[in-house]
Specification:
about 170 residues, mainly alpha, Recoverin, domain 1, two-stranded antiparallel ribbon, 2 strands, elongated
């Protein structure tokens, strides 16, 4: 299932219309109206919207939004580490779009269907990776760079951390 077109309609624009749509969407995601979105609330809201998304994608997008907010001091509430507030919601949606594309590429490279990419799979998928706009001169060196834990296989978390810089840079 191609998820990228499904996620395209999420309101990530910085203009007034995008902000208005995000406010409405945030309210829909926040069933108890407390102004905080838990990971479970986000997951359930996406399902109810018909935007069922793989758990690793949601988790990475969610954690990235929380982390950036903490680093920039935008989310200073006691709930900040575990919840998304409206200030982080656009960032969450942007990251959801980015990680969705990365997930689709990751899965297309993972021909063993074990949620890991080994070096031969990586080498075979260089053309797909270069569609991200990043020319890979030395596949073995790039693989080693992405494989942060040096386990000999790339996990989605590592792939996402690496690929995030290349996906939709205009959205950030």
């Amino acid at each position: 299932m191609k998820l990228v077109p499904i996620m395209a309609s999420l309101p990530t624009e910085k203009d007034a219309a995008g902000k208005k749509e995000r406010k409405e969407l945030f309210r829909a995601f926040d069933p108890n109206g407390n102004g905080y979105l838990s990971l479970a609330e986000v997951d359930m809201a996406l399902i109810q919207m018909g935007k069922k998304c793989p758990k690793p994608v949601i988790i990475r997008a969610y954690k990235a939004a929380c982390q950036v907010a903490q680093e920039h001091g935008e989310n200073l509430t006691k709930e900040g580490e575990s919840y998304i507030e409206f200030a982080e919601f656009r960032l969450f949606l942007v990251n959801l779009k980015k990680y969705t594309l990365l997930w689709e590429i990751f899965c297309s490279l993972d021909t063993g269907h074990d949620r890991r990419i080994d070096l031969p799979e990586f080498r075979k998928g260089i053309k797909k990776l270069e569609k991200l706009g990043h020319k890979i001169e030395d596949p073995d060196a790039e693989f080693a760079l992405i494989d942060a834990d040096h386990g000999g296989q790339i996990l989605f978390e590592e792939f996402g951390d690496w690929g995030l810089q290349y996906v939709y840079p205009e959205m950030s």
